[in-house]
What does this fold into?
Amino acid sequence: MRYFCTILLCLMPAFSWADSSFFKREQWDFSGYLKLVFQAPNNQPTAIEMDDLSLFVSAHINRWFNPFIEAELYSIPLWESGQGLQFNQAKFTIERLYNDIQFDEENTLRLGKFLSPVSRWNILHAAPLVWTTNRPIATRYSFANYISGLNIRHEFDLFSGHALEFYWQPYQEFYAKPTTKQDRHYQTVLGAAWILQDDISAYYAFNVQYADVKDRRENRTTLSFDAFLHRDYFDFETQWLVTFVDSNQAQHHAQDWGGYTQFSVPIPLDLHIISRYEHFQFSDKTVANNTLLTGLVYRPYSKLSLKLEWQQTWGSVYKNGTGLYASVAVLF
Amino acid sequence: MKLKYLLLCFIFNFLAPVTCWADIYIITHAETKVPSISRKELAAIYLLKKNYWPDDSPIVPLNLPAQNALREQFSLDIFKRSTREMGEYWNKMSFKGVKPPITQASEQAALLFIQRVPNTIAYVGDKPPENKQVKILLQLKN
Amino acid sequence: MNRHSLVIRLTALSTLLIVLTVIILSSVVYYGFHNKIKHQVQRNLSEQAEFQVNKVKQLLQTEQTNLLAWRTSSEMLDIVVDDLDKRIQSELINLKANYQLPGELYVFNQQDLLIASSQQGALGQSLPIEWQNGLHDVDFIAPHTVAFLDRTQAITAFVLHIKIPGMEKMGTLVLTHPWQAIWQQLVFDDYQFAFYHEALQRLDLVTESGIVYYPVDTDFKQQERWIFNQQAYLGALSNTYQIGQLNFQVAAFISEQEANKPQLEVLKELNIAACIVILPIIFLAIALSHRFIAPIKKLTDTIKCIEASNDLSLTVAVNSKDEVADLARAFNRMIDHLAKAFTEREKIAIELEDLNQNLEQKVHERTQELANALDQLKSAQIQLVQSEKMTSLGQLVAGIAHEINNPIGAIYANVSPLKEYVSDLQEAVDKAQSLLPEQELASFSLFLDEIDYDFLQEDLVNLLTSQQQAAERIKKIVLSLRNFSRLDQGELKQVYLEEGIDSTLQLLHHEYKLHITIEKDYQLNQLVECYASELNQVFMNILANAIQAIADKGVIRIHTYLNDAQAVVEISDNGCGIPDNLKSRIFEPFFTTKEIGKGTGLGLSISYGIIQKHEGSLSIDAAPNQGTRFIIRIPLLLTKN
It folds into this structure.
């Protein structure tokens, strides 16, 4: 606790808007974020968990050398009802590890492990940057979230962010997170993203991805569209995708499909009201998932947000079911 | 305390248009190879999307402090967004490993800075004397 | 208690051992302890020195780390503009407040002018020469003073270059730290610390009042003791710590007294403990010795008991399993064996005793028997001899008698004719006388006177009479002899004892006739059934003895009477008597008071045997010089057995 407060204290200067980083050492940047979750799902024990403790280091040395690494400790249970306090488990992963080579202003080659651009939520999934504790299924489930390989990005317009990306994972994911029952690891992945706009006010993108599932005879082809609007009085985001599943295992449906829409409305006192609806049909489940989520976010500074939400789930459950969830997210 | 700040800035945000909006001069060191830049370029530079001069030397944009009125004006002019809203953008950028531009506390400091450090650009409200050290790249007319 | 007692010895030995052991151990322990303490002290000092050095190190390193972080903070960029907006200054002030820095922060620009400081009113100063570190990016300046600061207070300073990425050095960041604040941390009660600068050959001793500088020589490190302020100290050095250009070691000192305190305490405690412990140890030793000796004692007691009571069934109780128990068990076994042996022996002894007794008895009996037999044999022998003698004597006598008888008969027979012849002769003489003429008569008468015819005539008659008497006497003697010898002595006869006595007297007549008077008092006059000849022997013996006993004149009285169906013959004399001590011996065979060759000593024993044979008794009544009386009692009728 003391450590946490000390960190917080040290972060105080960093809490002002658009201020420079916490630590600058020549060309190196250090940053990170922290997500502390309190969850009370109906069908699972109440728990407090440090879901993410990430540290990223980036450097901008020259055109050829712009490394980035994000290391993360995740799924650190702190307290669980029935088990009491515990500090003995933590999972570690290298979320991202890549180098950007800027051939010129418009063309960048990225080599390493990076986030796949299929969903904006995937690219910017850091807890302080999203409005809810729980992540919509459509933003993670159906496609490869991480690409270990190369990405070529061509910017048509630097200002608007109109760009086109191609990416390829030749072999398999580097330092993959261990799978749970519901997740997959991918082998060869090939994708393209056409980002129509990526600036302060809006984001639109079309995505296509072909992925070969590891340890299964299955390949998936995903088509996705997602959008994000940032206006004065609300934030709106949505994503819809369909994934064609070609598997030798019996499927209930030929494809996954689904999507979500979410609104975030600022109200006085640094609060925001969040509401989201999601529908997702799993190819390997008969019943689709319908989720309705309402939440309240207190965000005194842009780098700190306290979220409280109630999620109501019908049908198949993915990761989190009906229940109350709260979290604290800090960017530093 | 911060709340007051916020409120103040919020008000400022609205009041700002009431106060006199000066011209904004985009200045750089006289020896910078580029004679001038466009608005778009300026925006790209300040969004840290454009990082290199044509001669491959790095561009270092200078900001004024977040609460600064001129900065607010600049932000609204260039990005059509307030500083605060830009904060969001910078959060996202920080997640990608990009930090917002460095700041100087005052226009005088900014002026001094660009004279002493090459490849930096800054914006000021008062037209600086054009001399051996300073070059105006762009003038944002109010 | 016996001074040789095992208990005492054991006690003494064990006490001695224990005491010796304790002393040796204590000495060893103390010596080891002494060494250990010495080492420990050294180690402690080293550790303390290290600890303090580390403390100082930590302190300085934290500052350095912080500084390295602070110099990269965004505010430092303002160096470029000489901190026009005082952002650096406010930052420095904040930092000083937040981190509670004991010193001050200074930022100099590229021209080495102080543009920002947490200290008030110092701006515009130029970079002191002490802080101009040239090429080093980070430097630590040893305690020094600078021009614009209090010259009396030494300070240390971290000097860092401030650089903008991609550019040359833009400025200098300095953090000062009052030297006192650093060394004051090394003031302690128990230990004394100092900074040792090997290169400078100087020891900065930290005291409460300040730092005292001692120059030291090169062998400082090798010294074992150091003297400061007339006090001896033990010390140790830490490792060298280098920060910036400063090299130093921390030395930790402890006064020798202090260091030796634990040892003295230990010594004291050891002594006290030893003294306290000795007494119980002795008691314990005594108790243990007793315990050890107890079984042996028990054994001894049991043995004594066994000795006293001779009861071999006693055993020693065995409780333990040690050697003494083995001894006790062996002893028990031995006792058992002994008991068995003894009972056997006793049995054997008893048997033996029995046997012995029996033997004795038997021997006695046998002896008795033998004696009896011997006696018997002797008496038989005697008797035999006697009887042989008597027989032969008898035979002889009979023979003689017979032989004599004949001549005697002849003689006796001839006497009468002789008398007649003599008378005839006398008549013849007379007639001759008568017829002779006177002349012839005168020659005849002279011749007759020459031959003493008158006497001759008288004597002739006397001679013839005495001859006849003599011949009669010889006849009587022969008769007595025959009576005496009685060759038919094996027969039991009824005779008058008096006849036998008389016969015997007859035979002994010549012995006593001169000096002894025989008084007879025959009252019995009855037939007694007996072995007459043997009785005559008895009478003979006794009478012979009586005669011999009377030396000069005396009387032998023979009294026979009847008493209680027994014939009693008393023969008493007034001779020399028999002394009392010989009374019992007279009946012993071969016992005699006569000279050798004068008597066989058999007489009375044979007599005794003969009377015994008659189932009678032969007793004696005598006193010295008062005579002797023999009393023979025999039954009238002899019962055949």
Observations:
- Chain C has a mean pLDDT of 81.
- Chain C has eleven helices and 19 strands.
- The two ends of chain C are 80 Å apart (CA to CA).
- Chain C touches chain A through seven residues (CB under 8 Å).
